[in-house]
Amino acid sequence: MSITAPAERPVAPDESLDRTLWEYTRASGLRSMVMGTSKDPNAKLTILLVSPSTGLPAMAVKAPTSDGAAAAVAAEERMLLALGSRSSALIVDTVPRLLDAVDFGGRRAIVMSAVHGTPMSSRYMRRGHTADPAQVQQDFDSVLSWLELLWATTAADPAPMDMGCEVGLALADRFHDEPGLDRDLADLRALHARLRSNVVPPTIVHGDLWFGNLLMTGRRISGVVDWEAGIASAAPARDLARFALMYALYIDRRARGHRRVRGHPGLLAGDWGAGIVYALHSDAWFPRLVQRFLRTGLERLGASPESWRDVALAGIAEVAAMTDNPTFARRHLDLFRALTGAPSIAKDRS
What is 105-163 written as a DSSP string? Predict the structure, then answer.
């Protein structure tokens, strides 16, 4: 037995859920596969519903395990609705389509269409990939091409670039008893003020655009998932910063101790965040590609390419403020301090 057709529209948030996830899966005739659980405090289950005849995913389910996770799933639902109503077909085809909502242990789970492709994380983790300038450049080019489509189809009227006044508020709340926080917030206000001198169209923003959330077919982005941190209208440079920073963060993952990282002259593994410091301060092929990615993206938005470093620093502060993981947040705050308060030290580390 199978579901004859997906819902013409998702179940509205205030409508009752008349089916559980188990009932929905059993009725679909599809096989379920749990892809993983988030390690964040507010974890979600991601479940693929796979066709037994083709072996390919037909749908994906995001199911919350806590009230905090339920809020994140609801945020993703709102973003998918916004994308479906505002984006071009080229973008919509790369984004899960909201199909239905079901009950999961008394909480609302969303059912989405599955997007296809090979995770960029598989490419990234392949031995030698991040040591090859041509392959790294291809990754950056594919992401920038996808972002330009998103920007072109969701742009609003130009406005001063706002990298998030809520970031400062969240930092102040999260690290309220942290010595030296006043200096951090002053540094953040100063760079936000500099960035507001750029006037660019606000767009839909993914909010967590890193290689783990991207799927590729050939040389193009064919899928972008996990929209729960998305924003309906914000500075598009936020996605530029997140991708560049997360790409740089893990390039020393295979090296142990304080050893040189193969393919990256001047980069020593060991200190957390060394790849980001290297990307922002060194003069080698990888830092040049990262900086070119940021500069080119800003230029295409109509912003000054010279703002690339402030955009990166604002992105680091955003992770420190917004990530669910407290250790990850703490490390990003330390990194922000190193790069704003002691740039000469950061250069020495690179």
Answer: TTEEEEEEEPP-SEEHHHHHHSTTGGG-HHHHHHHHHHHHHHHHHHHHHH--S-EE---
Structure tokens at 179: 């010595």
SS3 of 98, please? strand
Domain boundary assignment for the chain: 21-113, 118-349
Tokens for 287, please give them: 């830092």
For 290-319, what is each residue's pLDDT tens digit? 999 999 999 999 999 999 999 999 999 999
CATH architecture of the domain 21-113 equals 2-Layer Sandwich (3.30)
Architecture of domain 118-349 in CATH?
A: Alpha-Beta Complex (3.90)
Give the number of residues written for the chain: 350
Tell me if domain 21-113 and domain 118-349 are identical in fold. Answer: no
Q: Which two tokens stand for residue 45?
A: 């289950």
Provide the pLDDT for residue 41.
Answer: 63
Helix 237-249 to helix 308-322 angle (10° resolution) is 80
> Which residues are CB-contacts of 345 (< 8 A; sequence separation ≥ 6)?
338
CA 109 distance to own-chain centroid: 21
Q: How deeply is 252 buried, as exposed, middle or buried, from its count of CB atoms within 10 A (0-12, 13-18, 19+)?
A: buried
